[in-house]
Design goal:
The structure holds two protein chains of two kinds.
Chain A (H helix, E strand, L loop, with lengths): L5 E4 L2 E5 L6 H18 L3 E5 L8 H16 L3 E5 L3 H9 L8 E3 L2 H25 L1
Parallel strand pairs in A: 2-3, 3-4, 4-5
Antiparallel strand pairs in A: 1-2
Helix pairs in contact in A: 1-2
Chain B lengths: L6 H7 L1 H14 L10 H21 L10 H17 L3 H9 L2 H11 L4 H44 L4 E4 L2 E7 L4 H18 L3 E8 L5 H17 L2 E5 L3 H10 L7 E2 L3 H11 L10
Parallel strand pairs in B: 2-3, 3-4, 4-5
Antiparallel strand pairs in B: 1-2
Classes of the chains: A alpha/beta, B alpha/beta.
Chain lengths: ~130, ~280
């Protein structure tokens, strides 16, 4: 069965969406992602959509749902590399993906996740580094 | 038409007299605009019209939708277009056709001196024909004026939405003039395009040149802000005048968590601060 690969990068997971999403694929991705977040204790999820050219409300909802699931599992979601046309479409559809973080590219996305991770565990990390 | 009208014959035999008479009328008329158009040009247009008009009459007579009248219509369309560009008014342009009635009626009167029925018939035909052609001219005139307006509109649209880079990572789009949905679309597209090209993290929308902000304009602005946010860039809105601030509050527009600043300078300051940059006075 068709699956979207989920890559582990340190404490974060990276998903690159390069094919047209349909119901079952989205469902599988959701299930897989929830599994991996739990399995690796991931603290952040990066969803890279720079090759996504067409979006509809379905994809918008899927992104929002993945973000809420990850949130429950204590992982931040960052959507990266959205194309201008895609952004305009989502706004016209009235979906501004509240609660989902966004970044221009994967590098920035990792910076954002790292940043929020640092500020969360800032105190502890400092203690460890001094040791 | 049962009995063949003598109109074609009259036009054929008296072409040059008709033309002379018509030109004399036109040169004497108050609607003649010597400042916009030379007499030679008018003479040439008039003679061409008389010639083509005769061909049309020889063909389908009163039905100007047929092929026989196509050359006349084509000629009138080009006349309307050139006159619209020269700055003639709509009625001045249509008068060109309507003024042909007088010389033609005079000629008909001479020809049908003893035939009231024939005169009435041909005067009627001529009136119908020239009215149709005159209306057609007005229509064409309007069309070419509309084309001019549409072209200017699109030029204005292109002119009014430049996206400038203030600093590596900071874009600015100074908006001038009223924002409607069409313009917002262009603004949004060019801004987002530049964001993805330059990888800028911050975009400043400066609305110093926007005369009024109502709920619709505010909604358009917010749309642009959320689209930029979806791409991973933050938006600041600057250049909010005291009046606009009051209007926005009066209307109860919710600008949400968008950072708004009174001047572009302070917005740039915020942007630099967000990027971790600092402007220093170079003092020893």
């Amino acid at each position: 069965m068709e699956r979207i690969p989920i890559l582990k990068m340190g404490p974060f997971l990276l998903v690159t969406i390069q094919v047209d999403m349909h119901d079952r694929l989205a469902q599988t991705l959701q299930d897989d992602l929830a599994d991996r977040v739990v399995k690796y204790g991931a603290r952040g999820v990066l969803i890279e959509i720079s090759s996504l050219e067409v979006v509809d409300s379905f994809i918008g909802r899927m992104l929002a749902r993945i973000a809420s699931i990850s949130r429950v599992l204590d992982a931040d979601t960052v959507v990266v590399g959205m194309r201008p046309a895609v952004a305009i479409t989502l706004v016209e559809l009235g979906m501004s993906l509240e609660g989902v973080k966004t970044a221009l590219n994967v590098e920035r996305g990792i910076e954002i996740l790292q940043g929020s991770l640092d500020s969360e565990t800032g105190g502890e990390e400092d203690v460890h580094s001094e040791d | 038409m049962a009995e063949k009208s003598k109109l074609e014959e009259i036009l054929r035999t008296n072409e040059s007299e008709l033309l002379d008479h018509w030109l004399k009328e036109q040169f004497a008329a108050v609607t003649l605009r010597r400042d916009l158009m030379s007499e030679d040009q008018l003479r040439q247009q008039s003679s061409e019209f008389v010639r083509l008009f005769r061909q049309g009459v020889a063909g389908a007579l009163t039905d100007i939708t047929t092929q026989d009248w196509a050359p006349v219509k084509e000629m009138l369309a080009s006349v309307s277009k050139s006159r619209a560009q020269q700055g003639f008014g709509a009625s001045e342009t249509a008068t060109f056709v309507f003024s042909f009635k007088q010389p033609l009626f005079d000629r008909l009167w001479t020809e049908y001196r003893n035939d009231a029925k024939g005169l009435a018939d041909d005067v009627w035909i001529t009136t119908v024909l020239l009215d149709k052609l005159g209306l057609y001219t007005t229509e064409m005139y309007q069309q070419s004026r509309e084309q001019i307006i549409a072209r200017q509109q699109s030029e204005l649209l292109e002119l009014s939405t430049p996206v400038v880079q203030l600093w590596p990572g900071i874009l600015c789009i100074p908006l001038i003039g009223t924002l409607d949905s069409e313009r917002t679309q262009v603004v949004m597209e060019s801004l987002l395009q530049r964001i993805s090209e330059t990888g800028s993290e911050i975009a400043i929308i400066d609305i110093s040149g926007v005369p009024a902000v109502d709920t619709l304009v505010a909604q358009h602005l917010l749309k642009t802000v959320s689209a930029a946010r979806l791409m991973g860039a933050d938006c600041l809105i600057s250049g909010i005048s005291p009046q606009i601030a009051q209007t926005v509050v009066h209307l109860g527009v919710k600008l949400g968590d968008v950072i708004t600043k009174a001047s572009l300078a302070s917005a740039l300051d915020v942007a630099l601060h967000t990027l971790g940059l600092e402007v220093k006075n170079r003092q020893k």
